[in-house]
# Entry
Amino acid sequence: MIVTEVMTQPAVLILLGPPGAGKGTQARMLEEDFGLVQLSTGDLLRAAVAAGTEAGRQAKAVMEAGELVSDSIVLAILRDRMAQADVAGGIILDGFPRTAGQATALDSLLSDAGQRVTAAICLEVDDEAMVGRVSGRTTCAQCGEGYHDEFKRPATAGTCDKCGGHDFKRRADDNAETVRERLKAYHAQTAPLIAYYDGKGVLERIDAMGAIADIRRALGAIVTRVSA
Ligand code: AP5
# Structure
């Protein structure tokens, strides 16, 4: 008798999409809905810049120019984060991988742990709308909750819905000129990963031009299906 062993592994979800597609917004909602942990290489790099580490010093100018930080720096930061205990229940990779080299490095990292990518979910948007989305973004300085001047305002103006903080900040790279550079980098180096994950049979696509709550529901349905 042949017994097919069903391997259960913690979910490894990738959110693919250009700047402003809603990766961070939806990743934080998936954390709430599914108990997964968001790993954002953008957030990890910004923390390294703020802490003044060697990696942060090297990354700062590259990020402000809207270009991609080197694979070696990003992979070192991501490996450290993935070694922490809280990721054991499943992760949402937000902003990683972004190059072919990062995608193959992720495959080997997961393979060493007996895991693989559960799904790579591509948030499909119109580039034109992304400049407006990104340049209207604010973030709570205390808890990191994201907002938008027009599309996602706090319930009480000036007060974070999540933590009650009153200090909101804007990212140094969230200006129209840098966003255009980030969009170029996305199309040149990251968009080819859509075909890579399609070839592996794990690609999911979602229309991410609708309302945040509708996208949350559609994403939730995908995550429920692929995690079953
Ligand atoms: P990173 O921080 O990853 O930025 P990004 O990929 O450019 O994406 P964003 O954070 O701008 O957008 P998002 O898709 O998360 O959108 P959000 O949910 O915030 O990277 C920054 C830099 O770090 C890179 O340029 C690079 O230099 C470096 N870097 C990071 N990772 C790297 C890697 N792996 N390799 C190399 N370099 C790396 O939404 C945006 C706004 O829109 C918000 O205000 C939100 O409220 C609003 N919004 C969201 N959804 C909707 C909706 N459906 N309708 C209306 N508004 C919406």
Residues 47 and 56 are 8 Å apart (CA to CA). The mean pLDDT is 94.
